[in-house]
Specification:
alpha/beta, 9 helices
């Protein structure tokens, strides 16, 4: 099977899953709360499902700005930290993973245009190309990172130093990954990394969970749905956005829907990342 054929099959299956997820939303219970959306790449022009064209990303940000309460992750954590009996106002948090050059060139200007707050979960070891990105994406430079930090619209969190899966590392390496990332964000950006996202959204080992809780105020995975008051802030749910998401899909995801798609993806990833460290 050629690469093109595999890509076509993947997109066809994905389209079926998305429509099934929309249908399942009518019967699956949906909590009201704050939804974290995950973005990865914008405008690199690849065939990746997480590399959105600039025009599509701009349109999505315009839609969210006009139709949803978009808030920063710090504010979201404060609301989620309220007692479980608290009635929550729906909201959306924009999160971006990794830290590649397109975030500076394409994403940041659009966030500023629509006056939207966001969080960038940065894997510090790749800045300036010290480690090449696995998908060939161009690395963010230290100068670009400073521009992001100075923008006033982006909080910078940790995505580890080398983007390693923490559940398969020995305890001392877990601590080193986290501390190196925190130290470099402080050195390069002049800010504290308050929040953390697990690479590939793979759940932590007990040791990794313990070390993350020592250092951050929140940790994010990719389990589906909205986040509610009284929830453990170290199990934040996040929902990925893909190039194949229509306006209907985006609207559903921003409201905590399409949980079936995420559930199926998470089960596939258990097999996909078995035996891997990155």
């Amino acid at each position: 099977m050629t690469v093109q054929t595999k890509d076509a099959v993947r997109r066809t299956v994905g389209a079926v899953v998305k429509e099934a997820s929309l249908a399942a939303d009518r019967v699956m219970p949906r909590a009201t709360g704050i939804t974290l959306l995950i973005y990865h790449r914008v405008g690199l022009g690849t065939s990746s499902l997480v590399d959105l064209p600039v025009a599509d990303f701009d349109a999505q940000m315009a839609y969210l700005a006009a139709n949803h309460r978009v808030i920063g992750l710090g504010d979201a954590c404060a609301e989620i930290g309220a007692p479980s009996s608290t009635a929550m106002k729906p909201g959306v948090v924009l999160t971006f993973d990794d830290g590649t050059a397109d975030f500076v060139d394409n994403t940041l200007p659009i966030l500023a245009k629509h006056r939207l707050a966001a969080t960038l979960y940065l894997a510090t070891g790749f800045v300036d190309g010290a480690i090449p990105w696995f998908d060939g994406s161009p690395a963010m430079t230290r100068a670009g990172l400073k521009e992001v930090a100075d923008s006033g619209v982006v909080e910078i969190g940790s995505h580890t130093h080398r983007h390693l899966l923490l559940d398969r590392l020995p305890d001392h390496e877990i601590a080193d990954e986290l501390d190196r990332s925190i130290d470099l964000i402080g050195e390069w950006c002049g800010m504290t990394a308050h929040d953390f996202a697990y690479p590939k959204a793979v759940p932590p080992s007990s040791a990794a969970d313990r070390e993350v809780r020592k250092r951050f105020r929140s940790a994010a995975l990719a389990t589906p749905g909205a986040n509610s008051a009284g929830q453990d802030p170290f199990t934040l749910r996040r929902t990925p956005i893909q190039t194949t998401d229509s306006r209907r899909h985006l609207a559903a995801k921003a409201s905590g829907g399409m949980r079936l798609e995420s559930i199926l993806r998470d089960r596939v990833n258990v097999v996909r990342y078995r035996g891997k460290t990155v």
